[in-house]
Design a protein that fits this description.
Elements (H helix, E strand, L loop, with lengths): L10 H7 L2 E7 L6 H11 L5 H4 L12 H11 L6 H17 L2 E8 L11 H19 L2 E9 L4 H11 L8 E5 L11 H9 L3 E6 L5 H9 L5 E4 L7 H9 L4 E3 L1 H6 L11 H6 L4 E3 L4 H4 L3 H12 L3 H13 L5 H16 L3
Parallel strand pairs: 1-2, 2-3, 3-4, 4-5, 5-6, 6-7, 7-8
Helix pairs in contact: 1-14, 5-6, 7-8, 15-16
The structure holds adenine and zinc ion.
């Protein structure tokens, strides 16, 4: 609601109204507790403790990435049927749309489903079905990015890549996620080479818990188009200059970094410093069901902690559209929409 006295938009309204893209969200990380418990019952799967524990209302708390991932992989066990993946994805896109997302690029983790007996096709077709319907009903466009779990073997990643080949037309790219420390990008250089040869675009989580060198490795050995997180890149001034010069986008996730103790004090988060240094920084939600907020909440948290101006917020939105994998015509259309939005408020 606009402020009743002045008619001015509040900061939250301004943020929600900005046309933007979400480029870093794990669909499994959008599994809200209510849906998790409902799907667990629907599928006769043993419910996670949080569904039956009366103290489960308390917010999630995580000491680090590993502690979060343990809970996250436990939660995904309720996802079994095509309809489950459809329902999960449809709920996420509705929320993203309410936050002003016009386009989403979302990760999925086949290696957390296929070994449980869920066929690769069930996962992809369920997610894809919801994305196609969301584009028709809400006008939100999308791309799918398949992630390899870096704490499993490169050989396992190669098997996953082969399983994805028949779905190449609906999977735009591949990424690298899960526990970072001790699992450097170089281990996956062959898999990423084969993926690129097959026509997949590439991204990788780097510099979340791992060092700045992992960001450099992801660029030099995996040849990624974007870095997911990249927080630790800020430790290396030469790397910051390179990111800015080569216009390599970072898909940063402020609430995730706060909740996983990467930057427990958001006021210390490098997002604003990197933006000011000319890096193509974007803001995203990562695993919003676990970290206390979706896309707009991440913009708002960064705004409050780092005193971002409306121009900074507009720059984040502009970067998200520029860094997306949208075809040129739609990208230009969204950038024009953003320009109109900004002009109408200046
Ligand atoms: N998978 C889901 N969320 C993740 C994160 N924040 N880092 C690495 N892998 C993940
Ligand atoms: Zn992530």
């Amino acid at each position: 609601m606009p402020d009743e006295q002045t008619g001015a938009q509040t900061m939250d309204e301004y943020i929600r109204g900005l046309p933007k893209a979400e480029l870093h969200v794990h669909i499994e990380g959008t599994l809200e507790k209510d849906l998790m418990c409902a799907l667990g019952e629907r599928n006769g799967v043993t419910l996670p403790a949080s569904c039956t524990d009366p103290d489960a209302e308390a917010a999630y708390h995580f000491d680090d990435l590993r502690a979060f991932l343990d809970l996250y992989y436990e939660g995904v066990a309720v996802l079994v049927t095509r309809q489950d993946f459809y329902d999960l994805t449809a709920a996420y896109v509705r929320r993203a749309h309410a936050d002003g997302a016009q386009h989403v690029e979302l990760f999925f983790d086949p290696q957390s489903h296929v070994p449980r007996g869920v066929p690769f096709g069930v996962v992809v077709e369920g997610i894809r079905g919801a994305l196609v319907d969301a584009e028709r009903e809400l006008g939100v466009s999308s791309h799918l990015i398949m992630c390899f779990l870096r704490d499993q073997s490169p050989a396992g990643a190669m098997v996953t890549l082969e399983a994805a080949r028949p779905y190449r037309h609906v999977i735009a790219g591949v990424g690298l996620d899960s526990a970072e420390a001790g699992h450097p990008p170089r281990e996956f250089a062959d898999v990423f080479r084969v993926a690129r040869e097959a026509g997949f675009l590439t991204v990788a989580h780097a510099g979340e818990e791992g060092p700045a060198e992992y960001v450099t490795e992801a660029l030099d050995l995996l040849h990624v188009a974007r870095i997911d997180h990249g927080v630790r890149a800020a430790d290396d001034p030469a790397l910051v200059q390179r990111l800015a010069r080569e216009r390599i986008p970072l898909t940063m996730c402020p609430l995730s970094n706060q909740e996983l103790q990467v930057t427990p004090d958001l006021a210390q988060h490098p997002l604003k410093r990197l933006l000011d240094a000319g890096v193509v920084v974007t803001a995203n939600s990562d695993d919003p069901a676990y970290f206390g907020g979706y896309l707009a909440a991440n913009y708002a948290a960064a705004q409050r902690a780092l005193c971002l101006s409306r121009a900074d917020l507009a720059a984040l939105a502009r970067n998200s559209i520029t860094a997306s994998w949208l075809p040129q015509a739609r990208r230009v259309r969204l950038l024009h929409e953003l320009d109109r939005y900004i002009r109408a408020r200046s």
